[in-house]
Backbone:
């Protein structure tokens, strides 16, 4: 028995060494985000009226139930903090352990590195146990940081501790899920897919259960962690459920490890097609195929975000009435109801457009990623010209950005329609979302220029994304000087639906985007293909 | 007519002079061995030919065109196998073969089926799950399924097992039989020797030897180590034997390849107790020719 665990310490040291940057990044990044959100709440809800207003609006909103579950004591500051951080904290901790665990188990095995180690003195279960201990360290740190930030926000000690423990145990539980997933699938991507689906399922089941206020909540680890009732009448026994499931899953993972071949999994990859469909033989067809997963992921995610925001719209006047400070965040005065809704819509349009620049830039940067991986070389050694290859990428990125903008608008309109029962706004809302597309294309054009001119520095294109995001999200708060605001293309577009549409800014920006693409093309045709 | 003509090509990467005045001529219909140790500049030269890299100076012609300016057009007439094959992880081997074939302007269905069989490649597996050797087979099958005039093969056998290497050699013979031109880079002397009509040896970014196999015969001596019943002292007088040395009762010496027959007979007369023979490695060759085994 013990020999199966031989070398765990050695293995753990290796894991910690490999993650000496990654683990602190996760902990500081996720923990910092949680801490910032927790500390931001008390100054906003600084009177009993505002707290009560939150409970009446957000605390009674089905959208909030779906996203964050039913938080107890929502009419206290502790309840509000827990409700506000729950999405980021719970999903964040699950995704963190999922990536960490799969990285050190299945991904290692798939790469063949693990085989080298296994042939030394490492026991059969050593890698699994080391990955588990690594994840335990990560969730304990996140739990501690969360508790400490809640205490720093002036919240009750028992409640803060209960919340931190619940969060850490939720993470632990999904670490065990990920360990099982790593045994089931023969590929790291497959394992991430299984674990990710388990996270999504747990999250949605809890959300739907909370919306219906049904026992379904108890079918999800997310529900168990939440029903430890931090900041209400704290109860410890749901923690036992989390621990019991964790133990069960760990047993299963161990059993699977002992009953499968090294490198194999229970789920073998299905054989794929022998022949390529016809359109794959063209640059656009190939790029489209290579990027369709990326595009689909962004489209679904952002359409869902649009849906949620759309559903939130009807609650805006109430929310602002209960807490006028919120009007300041979206840049509106809290008097006229329609003006409020319009200001919120403008904020959502811009925010979603800015987020979608992440897709556009990521999609363009695949060009250089393909070069660095050595895959561009085989294409450019065929009759495909540089012009055609870059053009295909640009075309697919732009079409993807257009598709995503349309779907975001449709999602928003659908959420709005479901919330209000009014369906006459669909066209206006889709058009409103599309009106911000030219600025997205300018940021993407910048990425094309960078890829063409200075491929080694292509990561710089992400600075453009970061800048427009910060300008939109924090611009009001940071009070940036006007000339800095003016660097963002989004700043120059008419603020639909608050202002009316004007064609010139959009046309100028489309021309600018085209010029940046041409600049990139010029550079791309003159330079060496990146080789290693 | 020269299919490839590189003259005085210089290519630098920062401080590294990857190509340092390279001259290379490959004639129509020949298999040309492009031989050099790792880091000699073989891949760089091939990438210049493909218009993937722009040379700093020198002139380059390929298939009657300019490799940089006419890249896409010239590529219709050639097929390339990179030294380190990277593929899209989501596509199957079969899909990659079709994609590359169609992008160069079409592939021969019969050849495709035949090559898949001969190289024992399963075309339904995702590229992500292929080993290095199998990725190389995908690129090889893609190249060999085309009826190109020119094949640029950059160390195409470095991941193949010996059986597949034999298959590869047969395939190259067939290309030659069809009249195609092949530039075959390698860092293994024996491989280039087995296939090539002519060989260019590259070292430090320049070609140091070039010629037919016969002209380079003096380079391809076999090293023999033998233990004989009678004294081997007079072996040095046999034609083709170089540098005989006796260590621990064994004699070792180099033999010109075209004198092996006579030397083996002379050895037999002495009564052979044990015998090993191996072709020189590229490193040994450089050691003898230039007094160093420099590899970069
Ligand atoms: N993209 C590059 N950047 C920097 N140095 C390179 C690059 N490509 C090749 N080199 C260098 O050029 C020299 C020749 O490399 P290469 O042509 O790959 O040699 P070979 O194919 O003969 O092994 C080596 O010293 C290598 O390190
Ligand atoms: Mg090479």
Residues:
């Amino acid at each position: 028995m013990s020999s199966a665990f031989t070398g765990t310490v050695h293995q753990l040291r290796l894991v910690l060494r490999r993650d000496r940057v990654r683990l602190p990044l996760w902990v500081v990044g996720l923990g910092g985000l949680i801490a910032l959100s927790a500390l931001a709440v008390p100054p906003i809800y600084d009177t009993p009226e505002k707290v009560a207003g939150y409970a009446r609006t957000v605390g009674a909103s089905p959208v909030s139930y779906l996203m964050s579950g039913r938080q107890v004591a929502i009419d206290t500051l502790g309840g509000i903090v827990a409700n506000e951080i729950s999405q980021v904290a719970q999903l964040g901790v699950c995704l963190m352990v999922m990536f960490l665990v799969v990285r050190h188990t299945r991904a290692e095995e798939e790469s063949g590195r693990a085989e080298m180690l296994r042939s030394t003195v490492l026991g059969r279960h050593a890698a699994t146990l080391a990955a588990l201990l690594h994840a335990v360290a990560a969730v304990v740190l996140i739990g501690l940081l969360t508790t400490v930030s809640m205490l720093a926000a002036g919240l009750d000690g028992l409640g803060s501790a209960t919340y931190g423990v619940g969060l850490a145990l939720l993470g632990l539980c999904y670490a065990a899920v990920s360990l099982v997933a790593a045994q089931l699938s023969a590929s790291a991507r497959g394992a991430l897919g299984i674990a990710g689906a388990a996270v999504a399922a747990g999250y949605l089941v809890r959300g739907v259960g909370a919306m219906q206020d049904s026992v379904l909540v108890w079918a999800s680890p997310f529900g168990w962690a939440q029903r430890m009732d931090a900041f209400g009448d704290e109860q410890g026994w749901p923690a036992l459920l989390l621990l019991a499931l964790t133990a069960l899953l760990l047993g299963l993972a161990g059993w699977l490890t002992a009953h499968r071949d090294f490198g194999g999994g229970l789920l073998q990859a299905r054989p794929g097609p022998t022949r390529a469909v016809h359109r794959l033989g063209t640059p656009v067809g190939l790029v489209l195929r290579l990027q369709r997963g990326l595009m689909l992921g962004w489209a679904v995610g952002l359409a869902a975000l649009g849906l949620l925001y759309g559903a939130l719209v009807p609650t805006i006047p109430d929310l602002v009435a209960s807490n006028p400070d919120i009007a300041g965040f979206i840049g509106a005065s809290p008097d006229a109801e329609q003006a409020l809704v319009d200001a919120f819509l403008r904020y959502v349009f811009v925010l979603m457009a800015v987020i979608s620049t992440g897709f556009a830039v990521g999609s363009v940067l695949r060009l250089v990623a393909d070069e660095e991986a050595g895959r561009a070389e085989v294409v450019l050694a065929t009759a495909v010209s540089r012009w055609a290859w870059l053009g295909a990428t640009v075309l697919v990125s732009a079409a993807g950005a257009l598709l995503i903008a349309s779907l975001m608008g449709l999602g928003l309109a659908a959420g709005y329609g479901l919330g209000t029962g009014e369906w006459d706004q669909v066209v206006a809302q889709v058009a409103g979302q599309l009106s911000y597309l030219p600025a997205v294309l300018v940021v993407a054009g910048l990425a094309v220029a960078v890829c063409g001119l200075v491929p080694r520095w292509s990561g710089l294109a992400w600075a453009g994304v970061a800048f427009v995001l910060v300008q939109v999200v924090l611009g009001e708060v940071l009070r940036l000087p006007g000339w800095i605001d003016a660097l963002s293309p989004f700043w120059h577009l008419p603020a639909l639906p608050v202002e009316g549409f004007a064609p010139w800014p959009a046309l100028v920006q489309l021309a600018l985007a085209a010029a940046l693409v041409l600049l990139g093309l010029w550079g791309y045709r003159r330079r060496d293909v990146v080789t290693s | 007519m020269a299919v490839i003509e590189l003259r005085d090509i210089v290519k630098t990467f920062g401080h590294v002079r990857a190509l340092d005045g390279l001259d290379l001529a490959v004639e129509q219909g020949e298999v040309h061995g492009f031989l050099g140790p790792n880091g000699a500049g073989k891949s760089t030269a091939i990438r210049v030919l493909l218009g993937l890299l722009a040379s700093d100076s020198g002139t380059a012609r390929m298939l009657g065109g300019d490799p940089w300016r006419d890249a896409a057009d010239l590529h219709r007439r050639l097929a390339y196998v990179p030294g380190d094959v990277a593929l899209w992880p989501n596509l199957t081997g079969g899909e990659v073969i079709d994609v590359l074939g169609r992008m160069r302007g079409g592939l021969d269905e019969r050849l495709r089926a035949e090559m898949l069989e001969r190289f024992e490649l399963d075309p339904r597996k995702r590229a992500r799950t292929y080993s290095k050797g199998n990725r190389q087979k995908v690129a090889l099958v893609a190249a060999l399924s085309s009826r190109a005039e020119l094949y640029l093969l950059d160390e195409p056998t470095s991941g193949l097992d010996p059986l597949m290497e034999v298959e590869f050699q047969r395939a190259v013979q067939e290309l030659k039989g069809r009249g195609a031109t092949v530039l075959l880079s390698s860092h293994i002397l024996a491989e280039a020797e087995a296939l090539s009509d002519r060989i260019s040896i590259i070292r430090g970014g320049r070609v140091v030897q070039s010629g037919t196999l016969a002209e380079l015969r003096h380079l391809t001596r076999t090293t023999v180590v033998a233990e004989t019943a009678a004294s081997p002292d007079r072996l040095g007088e046999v034609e083709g034997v170089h540098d005989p040395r006796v260590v621990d009762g064994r004699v070792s010496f180099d033999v010109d390849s075209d004198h092996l027959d006579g030397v083996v007979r002379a050895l037999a007369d002495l009564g052979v107790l044990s015998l090993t023979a191996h072709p020189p490695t590229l490193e040994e060759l450089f050691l003898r020719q230039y007094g160093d085994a420099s590899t970069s």
